[in-house]
Write a structure and sequence with these properties.
The chain has 312 residues and is of the alpha+beta class. It has two domains: 7-181 and 199-259, no CATH class; 261-312, no CATH class. Helices cover 35% and strands 24% of the residues. The chain contains nine helices and eleven strands. It has helices at residues 44-49, 71-80, 137-146, 160-178, 203-215, 241-260, 263-268, 275-285, 295-309; strands spanning 8-10, 23-30, 36-42, 63-64, 88-99, 118-132, 149-151, 154-158, 181-188, 191-198, 224-226. Strands 1, 2, 3, 4, 5, 6, 7, 8 and 11 form a nine-stranded mixed beta sheet that branches. Strands 9-10 form a two-stranded antiparallel sheet. Helix 3 packs across helix 4 (160-178) and helix 4 (160-178) crosses helix 6. The longest helix is centred in the C-terminal third of the chain and has 20 residues, at 241-260. The protein is elongated and about 65 Å long. The chain starts with 7 loop residues before the first strand and ends with a helix.
Length: 312
């Protein structure tokens, strides 16, 4: 199952409308640390690219995605849609996407009617993307998934991944609102910090997590790397759905929890605690803080947290 997308012969969807209209189709990808990125395809680019003679050459897969919206247009589009105050950073990503020997597959809504049966595989492409602050993700994806916008005559449409990650953001928000989160430790570079994780605690929680795993679009599991970095091993370019969901859900929960914890709430819990527990509590409240302790103390704290989270 993990390699189902690596090499598959497919037939195009039936009754496709040839280029419905000029549109930007927005997509979401997440990287190995759970960061969320937004990028878009331009429906006019497959049309113009198909007229070029050099598109008949086989691609190496180590070049810019030919249908991707460039950085400046992407930022301008988000500003036009009212996201100017969102905390966003521009990034170049290497993403593995279903492709034939010549180019990545266009989104279904902009494919040509006469596309023939072809063999596809996951191929790396460079895209321009905007990293979305996890505290803003629900708001941005909510608007994108529920309302089709317009950018100077170009329709703005959400792709399947926008709808999917909007659902995940909603789950993260509900966990934090109801306190269904648990504190723990995580490594951040060479440092150790306190983090909040999602804590599904009811049968309904577990069932919905299973539904999210089942509903995950296959391309969501494709490997994503920050920068222009080629990963040649086919075994490492498809991630497990559980890993993809867990790391992103936990990153959302952690950011939202730390934002909502007040100074007073943290101070009330620190009386009569030793230094490492005080540091841990501070890192649970603030981003940018880290724990300064020897390895033995870190191991002991981790064991205490494991025992608390999984008694017996």
């Amino acid at each position: 199952m993990e390699s189902a997308y690596l090499s598959t012969t497919i037939k195009p969807p039936q009754n496709l409308i040839k280029y419905k209209q000029d549109m930007f189709i927005f997509h979401v990808v997440t990287d190995e640390s759970g960061k969320i990125y937004l990028w878009a395809k331009d429906s006019t680019l497959p049309r113009s690219q198909s007229k070029k003679q050099n598109l008949g050459e086989e691609t190496t897969g180590e070049e810019k995605h030919p249908f991707a919206v460039d950085k400046l247009t992407l930022i301008d589009t988000l500003l036009h849609m009212g996201y100017g105050n969102a905390k966003t950073d521009l990034s170049t990503l290497t993403v593995y996407l279903p492709s034939n020997q010549k180019a990545p597959q266009p989104s279904p809504s902009i494919q040509e009617e006469d596309i023939s049966v072809t063999t596809i595989s996951l191929t790396p492409w460079l895209i321009s993307a905007v990293e979305i602050d996890p505290r803003d993700a629900l708001s941005i994806l909510s608007h994108l998934s529920q309302e089709a916008g317009d950018y100077w005559g170009t329709s703005i449409e959400p792709g399947q991944t926008v709808h999917y990650w909007y659902a995940v953001c909603s789950v993260a928000e509900s966990y934090v609102d109801s306190g269904r989160v648990a504190p723990h430790l995580a490594e951040q570079g060479e440092s150790v910090i306190g983090v909040w994780r999602a804590f599904p605690s009811t049968a309904a929680d577990i069932n919905y997590i299973v539904e999210l795993l089942d509903a995950m679009p296959p391309v969501t599991r494709s490997y994503v790397k920050v920068g222009a970095k080629y990963c040649g091993s086919s075994g490492s370019i498809v991630c497990s759905s559980r890993d993809v969901l867990t790391r992103t859900l936990d990153r959302l929960v952690n950011a939202l929890s730390k934002e909502r914890l007040s100074e007073d709430e943290a101070d009330l819990t620190m009386d009569e605690l030793d230094e490492i527990h005080q540091q841990w509590l501070r890192t649970l409240q603030k981003s940018g803080e880290s724990i300064d302790a020897n390895p033995e103390e870190i191991v002991e704290l981790r064991e205490q947290l494991d025992e608390w989270a999984h008694p017996g």
